[in-house]
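Feature request disguised as a bug report, sorry. It would help if multi-protein outputs had a clear separator. Right now it looks like this:
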Amino acid sequence: MQAVDFNSDMGEGFGPWTIGDGVDAELMAYISSANIATGFHAGDPGTMRRTVERAKQLGVAIGAHPGFRDLVGFGRRHINAPAQELVDDMLYQLGALREIARAQGVSLQHIKPHGALYMHLARDEEAARLLVQNLQVVEPTLLLYCMPNSVIWQVAKELGHPVVREFYADREYDLSGSIVFTRKVRALDPATVAARVLRACQTGLVRTVEGEDLVIEFDSICLHSDTPGALELVEATREALDQAGIAVRNAACVIGQARSSHPRNTHG
């Protein structure tokens, strides 16, 4: 792997409240793409604007990070709602960030659903298909972040919508290729996380919770800003990538490079 995107969730406070270590501004110096909370699980208009401004200053690509309407649960509780309602909510959130970004002279690179909504779309074909169909009407070139081989990845591939496949630096995997989510993430060792990411980039393998290796293909590394010690984790991971000669580029550049290298590649 010669280049990879490095993304993190940003702007996930609300008014005067912050989430995690409150180090968004520092974190953004190490990443290439920022997923900005759009008000339903976290975020508010002022926070969205300030996050867009910071990303613009640093040349970091931005995307909408819509979630379930769940401020109290930080969007990590599943909500049973009809597919149309979920897609309406996501389009509403996408439009909010798009206009705030447009006022700053910035365009959106991508959309990445948050938390429980991300996992819902990874398995619910009706909601996934409806979202992709709507994106193709309102933003046909907007990159869609998703798990490789998930339902929404398969739907996007079928409909020809561009996707970005993710690898989670600070989450465990099981042998099915699914992320093992936990409500309270423990502190992680920066060197261990960096080594795990580097191994995935260089060999395409990740060690699962079952103790076996899983083959994984991805275009972007995700490290959550609310993971304890996130800044140290991001710094260590970025240093490991730089030392290994793996360039950190935004997702649009990585996907463009993959397409030019593999003209028949249809993964997005």
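(second protein starts here, but nothing in the output says so)
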Amino acid sequence: MYRSFLLFILTFTCLIPAKAQDMADKANHFIRLLSKAQQAQTLFPFDTGERYHFAYVPRDDRKGISVNELNPAQRQALMALLGTALSEGAVKKVNDIMQLDLVLKELEHRPENDHYRDPGKYFLTIFGVPAANTIWGWRFEGHHVAFNFSADKKELVAGTPAFLGANPAIVLEGPQKDKEVMKEETKLAFDLLHALSPGELQKTVVTTKAPAEIITGDRRNALIEHPEGIRYPELSAAHQQMLLGLISVYVHRFTKLFADKMLKDIQQDGLDNLWFTWAGSTEHELGKPCYYRIQGPGIIIEYDNTQNNANHIHTVVRDLKNDFGGDMLLEHYRAAHTK
């Protein structure tokens, strides 16, 4: 059954146009395919506190409906919805990350009936009523995958917090040996780091010890008060382009509409206000912990590879103005529902 779900992922993301108005249509198609009991499990008000829950570790108490509980047609509809928000490459990464749960299950010698590691334990939750004239949102979340989307009528407001992780970062044995799901996020960062001049490198590396986890964690409000590292204007023109290329990897996890909005916001906030920060080892080798961050007035991107002998990656994108749709969107929703 799960193999069929993977085929849906690879097939249908190639067919889905990245249009904002598609999102509500695809969400409603998914809802119509659910039974009444499944709808009750999946649908929540937009102003519920549940919408702000954000977790990227294995959990048994997630709200919503899991992939395991869906039939093939429902799974197809779920992936069609996901394809309205994420790029084809990002959906493939989600698929690959889900499959890594099978690798972990084998590595941890878990019995067949143990579902702590389970590629079907990923949940969809819908908040509000999807339509072209409503405020609503949805979340797709499980181990090492967490995306939160918000829409205000026909406008896509936010797709964050957005988390992707990989454990193992590099599969060392078994049928998936050498698979490296987050290879691009790792390689481009090290390419930039190793290209820096001695003066640039001295500013960029703030400590030789990497933090044990992404600093923003799973908090509702992402905040790192004091930026560190090297500022965009302090980089050479070539290294500025490399930094922008690294940002693009994260931004283009989303479909073009989302990505264009995020890039416009970054530019409006001023490229000169971007910081690039490195902590931990500067050697690109297994077993050497490292961390980097890109921070601006409206965005924080984090990458951490420290756990499991530095073979376990966490990455996150936080929109400091619009995470979970932003407070302003919630105010608009409440105002519309008190008239």
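Even a blank line would do. Unrelated, but nice: The chain has eleven helices and 13 strands.
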